[in-house]
Task: inverse folding
């Protein structure tokens, strides 16, 4: 948790609870039903022991007792003893059945509220994560967002659940205490003599088990990450014969996992032991003291409303039932804190300012060929370190331009500004003189088809991968785009052609094949500006040449922006921008630059000495 989240935690407790409840505000009829069902369960629990108590006190005796509850039960029963016994059995049975039904309905409503409420939280969070800009996502590990979505999203329901559960526990505890006090004050205090131990053991074991479970979960997550990394590194470890080292790391991780689980299991097993010991102690106290009270009130010096065997049975039953409410009360603070922290982590992301978003009055800009201009653009990833300085360039519709320069000079950063993955710190990027910050994001991005240096391949069919940006494309259109990108031949060689399913990240394709699919994907899109970041880096000379020919055929129909440090790819561009240390230092055609730009000429000479150029053919537009 970073500093901002800590500040949020310190300042804003009330809002977290309000916001957690707001996710369930439409569910209030279900919550009301849930509370009613909990009431039924609690009521059944309180009355469960009464049929036996009444049987002993009022039926299987020559001296029937006449408390108000006895009277109420007996009024429901026939006058004869066998009828009364059968009646009490039936009442006991009914109580059990009602209890089970209420419990079942209660559980299902609980699951329903939990799953749907958590789904709403997740939907909000997922949509927000989609809206947040790249700077946010690149500033933290991917696992962080995944954890917030999968685990922290349960926080709001956890808060509601704990609040309801604790309120019910408090009511149960109070009613139980009142009933016990009404029967016998002394025995009630005797029964409650074990309450501090119950509270203590619940608090202690609750904390310990929670802590151990968290540790164990973290160790298991580390183990999973470790196995995943080891599998990714497999080719490396086999090449460098580091299998024993990897195995040792794996064995250590498994060892930590086993130790963590054993520590958790130890606490889990100690807990019922402590609980049973305390309950046995409580039962012994009630049996001993209560037994003596019954003997005193019934045999030694009988009194009309003295202690009875039936009341003793009820005390014994309530002692067992005391555990649950006291558990809720004892664990309230630790549990609510856990869920509150989880909910805060969710709300923190939901409150994250969206740096890249539509202005309230953002204008519509239907995609069509437009002039693209950088007006004195400066930009840095952090406040203190600019990577682009006063970049000034205009690209006419249908023009094909190249940005070249050594690695790290800011070429890719410039492309990211076009799609508003980031905004410039000074100057503006414009489409037809409109600042792109004033345009609706979806309209702006519809102008561009972007091929990244390492484009993502999805674990789905080749056809779906190509059609990702244009899902309605026909087979013929997909085929045509693949042909333009030089991908048709290798796709046909795949076991199921266009229906071949790619593995995760396109691992069953070569780098060049993945790049051609990415290019086909961009070509299939109808965007008027085609932006390609190092599109030929993984292509062999024939395929590089094929792509350049394709781009030349597209010229005039689409604007093409090519970023590369392979000058062979840009020699036939209408204009080439040479970049150095975040600035455009020269611009012009290949021939002009060879004559006028020392930087370009030197890059060209280096490239000439490194590799033979692919066969050059001048093509018509
Ligand atoms: N997400 C980022 N956060 C911080 N700095 C970054 C980020 N991406 C790039 N940079 C830095 O910005 C500078 C320009 O990087 P950029 O990727 O734009 O260069 P490039 O010219 O495209 O390089 P290459 O040809 O190697 O792809 C580099 O110094 C790089 O370290």
Result:
């Amino acid at each position: 948790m970073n500093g901002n989240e800590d500040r949020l935690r310190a300042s804003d407790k009330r809002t977290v609870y309000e916001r957690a409840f707001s996710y369930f505000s439409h569910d209030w009829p279900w919550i009301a039903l849930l509370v009613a069902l909990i009431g039924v369960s609690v009521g059944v629990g309180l009355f469960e022991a009464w049929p036996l108590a009444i049987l002993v006190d009022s039926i299987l005796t020559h001296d029937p007792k006449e408390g108000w509850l006895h009277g109420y039960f007996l009024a429901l029963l026939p006058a004869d003893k066998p009828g009364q016994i059968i009646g009490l059995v039936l009442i006991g049975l009914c109580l059990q059945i009602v209890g089970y039904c209420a419990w079942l309905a209660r559980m299902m409503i609980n699951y329903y509220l939990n799953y749907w409420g958590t789904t709403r939280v997740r939907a909000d969070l997922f949509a927000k994560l989609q809206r947040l800009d790249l700077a946010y996502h690149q500033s933290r590990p991917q696992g962080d967002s995944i954890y917030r979505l999968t685990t922290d999203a349960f926080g709001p329901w956890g808060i509601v659940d704990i609040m309801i559960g604790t309120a019910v526990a408090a009511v149960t505890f109070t009613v139980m205490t009142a009933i016990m006090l009404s029967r016998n004050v002394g025995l009630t205090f005797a029964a409650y003599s074990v309450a501090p131990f119950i509270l203590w053991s619940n608090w202690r074991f609750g904390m310990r088990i929670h802590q151990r479970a968290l540790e164990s979960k973290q160790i298991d997550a580390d183990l999973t990450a470790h196995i995943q990394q080891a599998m990714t590194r497999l080719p490396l470890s086999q090449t460098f014969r580091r299998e024993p080292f990897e195995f040792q790391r794996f064995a250590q991780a498994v060892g930590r996992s086993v130790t963590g689980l054993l520590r958790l299991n130890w606490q889990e097993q100690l807990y019922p032991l402590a609980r049973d010991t305390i309950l046995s102690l409580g039962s012994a106290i009630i049996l001993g003291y209560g037994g003596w009270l019954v003997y005193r009130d019934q045999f030694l010096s009988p009194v009309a409303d003295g202690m009875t065997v039936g009341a003793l049975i009820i005390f014994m039953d309530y002692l067992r039932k005391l555990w649950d409410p006291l558990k809720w009360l004892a664990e309230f603070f630790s549990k609510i804190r856990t869920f509150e922290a989880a909910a805060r982590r969710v709300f923190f992301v939901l409150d994250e300012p969206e740096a890249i978003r539509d202005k309230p009055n953002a204008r519509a800009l239907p995609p069509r060929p437009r002039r693209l201009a950088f007006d004195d653009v400066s930009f840095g990833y952090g406040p203190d370190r600019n990577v682009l300085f006063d970049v000034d360039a205009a690209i006419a519709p249908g023009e094909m331009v190249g940005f070249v320069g050594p690695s790290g000079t800011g070429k890719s950063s410039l492309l990211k500004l076009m799609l508003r993955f980031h905004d410039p710190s000074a100057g503006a990027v414009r489409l037809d003189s409109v600042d792109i910050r004033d345009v609706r994001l979806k309209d702006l991005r519809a102008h561009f088809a972007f091929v990244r240096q390492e484009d993502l391949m999805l674990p789905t069919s080749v056809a779906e991968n190509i059609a990702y940006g244009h899902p309605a494309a026909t087979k013929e259109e997909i085929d045509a785009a693949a042909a333009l990108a030089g991908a048709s031949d290798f796709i046909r060689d795949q076991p199921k052609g266009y229906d071949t399913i790619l593995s995760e990240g396109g691992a069953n394709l070569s780098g060049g094949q993945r790049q051609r699919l990415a290019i086909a994907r961009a070509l299939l899109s109808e965007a008027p500006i085609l932006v390609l970041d190092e599109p030929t880096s993984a292509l062999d000379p024939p395929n590089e040449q094929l792509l350049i020919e394709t781009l030349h055929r597209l010229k005039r129909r689409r604007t093409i922006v090519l970023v590369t440090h392979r000058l062979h790819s840009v020699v036939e561009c209408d204009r080439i921008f040479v970049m150095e240390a975040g600035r455009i230092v020269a611009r012009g055609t290949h021939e002009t630059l060879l004559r006028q730009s020392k930087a370009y000429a030197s890059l060209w000479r280096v490239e000439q000495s490194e590799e033979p150029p692919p066969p050059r053919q001048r093509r018509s537009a």
In short: Residues 1-11, 615-621 have pLDDT under 50 and may be disordered. The radius of gyration is 37 Å. The longest strand covers residues 386-395.
